[in-house]
Amino acid sequence: MRATSVAVALGGPAVHICISQSDLSARLTRFDEALDRTQREHFQRENSMVRHGNELGRLPHTERAIDARVQQFVDADITEPPAYLEDLGAPPDEPAALDRWRHAAQDIERHRAEHGITDPNEPLGSQPSGELELLWRMDKLRADELITQIHDPVPTRDLGIELG
User: Fold this and answer.
1) 136 and 128 Cβ atoms separated by less than 8 Å
2) Residues spanned by the domain of 76
3) Has residue 68 been placed in a domain?
4) Which of 14, 18, 30, 119 could disulfide-link to 7, CB 3.0 to 4.6 Å?
């Protein structure tokens, strides 16, 4: 077996490494394969950007339209809260508390819209099984945290510092 000595310097004195010709060849082959794969993926991404550029350009407008629609739902929820928002309690009068209530309602309304939830009593619908269960559980934890912030907000203290 023939070995090759390679000098490597990484910000310090050179270190000599002995590696067999077959190991060096295998490593170079893996490196070449990874480089080819990366170049193919980059080319595919570039092609996708060209093919779908119009749709991607409309995405910010679509996001704003979705946000506006969610705001309309929340505005209606403040006037007449649906049963599935019962855990949020009545919309509070105090502005900071109302902001927390709105934030939680927005999160729930967005989840319901994204997942086609129509259950009149369960904010996030029933717990799914399979692949969607973990995502549902994460959404449930987030909703529970937002609800907790409505009923038991973290106290804040004014430090007298003005930003901006």
Assistant:
1) yes
2) 56-151
3) yes
4) 14
Q: Which two tokens stand for residue 17?
A: 């490494």
Q: What is the mean pLDDT of residues 139-164?
A: 83
C-beta atoms surrounding 137 within 10 Å: 13
C-alpha dist (Å) from residue 122 to 43, 109, 131, 143, 155: 45, 12, 20, 12, 29
> Rounded distance, CA 148 to CA 46, Å?
45
pLDDT digits (tens, 9 = 90+) for 141-153: 999 999 999 988 8
pLDDT tens string 59-114:
889 899 999 999 999 999 999 999 999 999 999 999 999 999 999 999 999 999 98
- Residue 109 located in a structural domain: yes
Domain assignment present for 13: no
Answer yes or no: is 137 within a domain: yes
Give how many domains the chain has, as a whole number.
Answer: 1
DSSP letters for 67-109: HHHHHHHHHHHHHS--GGGGGG-SPPSSHHHHHHHHHHHHHHH
Q: Are the C-beta atoms of 101 and 92 separated by less than 8 Å?
A: yes
Which tokens belong to 136?
């549902």
